[in-house]
Design brief:
The protein is an alpha+beta fold and 517 residues long. The protein folds into 3 domains: 153 residues, Beta-Lactamase, CATH 3.30.450.20; 101 residues, PAS domain (Beta-Lactamase); 211 residues, 2-Layer Sandwich (Heat Shock Protein 90). The chain contains 14 helices and 14 strands. Helix 12 packs parallel to helix 13 and helix 13 packs antiparallel against helix 14. The longest helix has 40 residues. It is an enzyme of class 2 (transferase).
Length: 517
Amino acid sequence: MQLAIVTGVTAVATGLFLAPFSRQLDDQAMRRALAIAQSTAAEPGLDDLVTDGARPDPGGPVQHVAERVRRATGASYVVVMDDRGIRWSHAKRQRIGERVSTDPAPVLAGHEVREIDEGTLGRSARGKAPLRDADGEVVGAVSVGIAYDSVRDRLLTAVPGLLAYAGAALGLGALAALLIARRLQKRTHDLAFSDISALLAEREAMLHGIREGVVALDAHGRVRLVNDEARRLLDLRPEHTGVPLEEALGPGRTTEVLAGRVPGSDLLAVHGGRVLVANRMPTHDGGAVATLRDRTELELLGRELDSSQGLIDALRAQDHEHANRMHILLGLLQLELYGEALDYLSEAVGEHRDTAEQISGWVRDPRLAALLVGKATVAAERGVALRVTPGTSLPDRLVDPPALATVVGNLVDNALDAAAGPAGAWVEVALWARGRTDVAVRVSDSGPGIPPERRDMVFAEGWSTKEPPAHGKRGLGLALVRRLAERYGGSARVSGGREGGAEFTVTLPEALHPHTP
């Protein structure tokens, strides 16, 4: 195909050169014929010889002048005619005295003529010039012809050189085509075009059929290819292909991971409420291919396992506390301190009832209240006092109770981990409605707190000060808190507590159904 293209282009270029070259030779021949005619018409006394009243003579002076000019210039013929178009000279003497074969009217009217024409001597390049007397009146004309064979001979003489150049160009083109073909075969691993087409079709089917997201980036960080699963996971649209990754996804950890600015494998990222596991493989051209796995369901399962573990811890704590109290009660009864036993039993039962009633009175949603009661039991087991701030008031109008339970549970868990250990440790929780539909959550602790320079990092995916659990990695709890807050159009921030430690504040607009009286 490449050789055919090179050959065709060379042939067309040669033809395009020959066409104007032939016209140029014709023009040169006509100009030369006209110049000879003009110089002949300017011969001194020629006009007098035509107008002296004599008759055309094959051996006369006009024929002598014309033949001299013809032999000197190499013209095919030099014809001198009078104002009637009668020849006074000709290369064939027998035609002298006859009328010219072509119309002499234009030249006898005083116009110079250049043309390619057929005459009595065949095809020729012709030039005609008027013959004027001393007063400038046209008394005849001179017609000069140059045989067209000489023009064709000049053209044919130039053709071999032209073909040599064309052949050289064709040879270079063939060599370049051969080198390109070999390079193409090397780059395509000697695959035929049909094989490449089949591979592309299979690649498209594979990319869009697998359940992993695939994103290909070029050397400049632009999105080059996205399969269907990646579009779903990253909320990408077709128009995002070809745009920079930051413009397609916006700033955040997901962009940092896909761009390769976060080292490591199986990196976690949260995007649009989904927990993703990303891996990135650079390509030889400076780009990269990133794969994404949706770990949201697995993470939710892990969270459910954490919740189940928390429930087990709460039950274990209650069982431990219940056993201790039963032992105390048994000892009092064995010592026959019946009054003290009755007082102790009343105090224990009343304390638990008061705590549960207090929380359920302030927090009307039963699931959230149960969560706080369970966290209070776990906190007591760990030696941490979990307090609900007086004035807490949350109506039973939550739009998404599981989401708020996730926020409160993650914040309390982080606070318990930070505060546990020293005597007198405490965690304080406050929840309240702001306006008609907004909810605010504040969780503070007595832990060591978070340095100001690290407070922006605590909400980043993957950042944690704790060891990872058995089911996966840490560093997602606070990231999910911020993500949930942002989903509601709110915010999550951390600051230093009034009594030391850290204080987390989360605002959730539109988290309550509007109150209808």
